[in-house]
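Record format v2
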Amino acid sequence: MKQVLLEHRLSMKSFLESFLDSKSEDFSSVNEWGSDVISRLKGFVLNGKLVRGCLVLMSAKMFSNSIYDEENALKAAAAIELVHSSLLIHDDIIDKDDLRRGSPAIHNQYEEYASKEGFKNHKHFGASFGICAGDIGFFMANELLSSINLPEHNKSALLKLFNSELCNVGLAEMQDINFEYLKDNVSEEDIINMYRFKTARYTFSLPMMMGAIIAGADENTVNKLGLIGEDLGIIFQIKDDELGIFSDEKTLGKSIGIDIKDNKKTVYCTLLMSDSNDSELKILKNIFGNKNITNEDIDTVRRIIIDKGIHEKISSRIKSLELEAITLIDMLNIDDNSRNILFKILKYNLDRTS
Amino acid sequence: MKQVLLEHRLSMKSFLESFLDSKSEDFSSVNEWGSDVISRLKGFVLNGKLVRGCLVLMSAKMFSNSIYDEENALKAAAAIELVHSSLLIHDDIIDKDDLRRGSPAIHNQYEEYASKEGFKNHKHFGASFGICAGDIGFFMANELLSSINLPEHNKSALLKLFNSELCNVGLAEMQDINFEYLKDNVSEEDIINMYRFKTARYTFSLPMMMGAIIAGADENTVNKLGLIGEDLGIIFQIKDDELGIFSDEKTLGKSIGIDIKDNKKTVYCTLLMSDSNDSELKILKNIFGNKNITNEDIDTVRRIIIDKGIHEKISSRIKSLELEAITLIDMLNIDDNSRNILFKILKYNLDRTS
């Protein structure tokens, strides 16, 4: 994974930078907020990991045979990163997160501006501007994507895929918000389904499928990549849940137990709840959703997870996802080097420690 | 204008209805929020005036000569109406408006759901779901637009225009929000510029340009329609401001003086402020932005507007917009019937009483 990022990050960054610079010029003719929002977006987008964009480039190269149209691939990669940043801007308003990528979240930056100007309701001003900034990012991404130079049929397929997957991300986001408000346990199936659309298809399937469409790959290949992406992404997310409970702060680079504090519905949480007896449930319900949990509380959760054999259950889920991914990757009509890259991403997701 | 709406509203409504029904089916495979959000959007979109969509259809027909592709035109019309409803959903969160089109605003509907479920922070839940619902609408609109059957060059132009104008709407919305928070007067130029991008180009230019592109009109014609739309829309908005101060509740169908209460920066407000002396300014500043203004206060504003000759100033602005529109409409290469329709829209905007 890191190799994929390393290879493509630099070219992505410089493309995004010059694209946003040109937009800043266009937007300046509208009003003073044009260059303002672009400069904030620029800082925000370029600070991201750019995973999705790099996967577009990787996939476009993988399926391009001899003619690799880098300009097209960079446009698609930049479009997905713009949308991703815009979704995060809205997400931070929804989750009331004031920090993102090491800096104040966009709504927070506008809140600070309003506060400096002495506006009343500066919090609402910040959220309002954040909503607008995200909306602008969505439109910019679609504008950029529409400038890709492809035969009409492939271009329609690309735009349709992009926007329909993003609709699904929006629906999965609604489901996720609702889960957080729910006190009751939710089914493993519902959680995996949420992972499928909010993380897996969006982070892995969509970029790889976009790259393949740009390279002119056939529909069957594109659909296979969609399924591979689902497997890769669900593994990634389950490992994320595991690290959030079992890693330590130093290795992970962020605090442990946030999901427990937020009563986030994870696969660990749901299996734990459904396997616990009444007295264990009583203990767990005092811990999940409690903002003031201690390290001892986290240890209690860990212990019950181990006692109940939840690890083994989850390992078997991951194993079947892994096997499915391997089978599908083997079926792709690509060279050994490309196949190896996909296997490396699979291995990275399986072994991730941060 | 009413004629244009009458002619096209029915076919638009039935197209939108069956499109949303098909989306409801697609979305149901994601999660239970899929059909939920579609059913709310359906009620919301179909309740609108559908002005923009009808203008797309009018323009597509006007420039199509013999071959009018109704399916394409309906898709573009539906796309702009979907985006419009989605922008209103976000707008209602920003303006904290709980009612829209005679029913609870979308964020308000979700707030009610959260309240019934006994969720804490049901207001924030409602806003969060409203943000997601709007986002989904934007992506759906772009997906629909990408399915239009046009030569690659025209299709790119259509998608580029659509999304770049919507970026500008977002920037104008930011400007408008900032204006409302500002205590100081803003320049007439800034206000007209805000009207240009937030109302005129978005409500009149964009739909007419989209219709013309679909019909295969040349670039020069499309650009002329853009300018005509600016004139039509700025006239429409200034008349709106006038009615908001000088009409009566019965004729207008909504309460008078809201813009004054909200300290909304209108052309009337800015000309009034810049032409007033210190003692008049003192009176006006106690009225503008005061949520408890009386009918007498509104009468005071009206009297100063008349005394200062603001009406005459604004009439001369409108006159030159009207003349420019007439010149441009005369230059269009269309039949007399089409030209008459455009003149009727101009006349409607000039004479509107509600």
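Residues 44 and 85 of chain A are 7 Å apart (CA to CA).
The beta strands of chain A are 99-100, 103-104.
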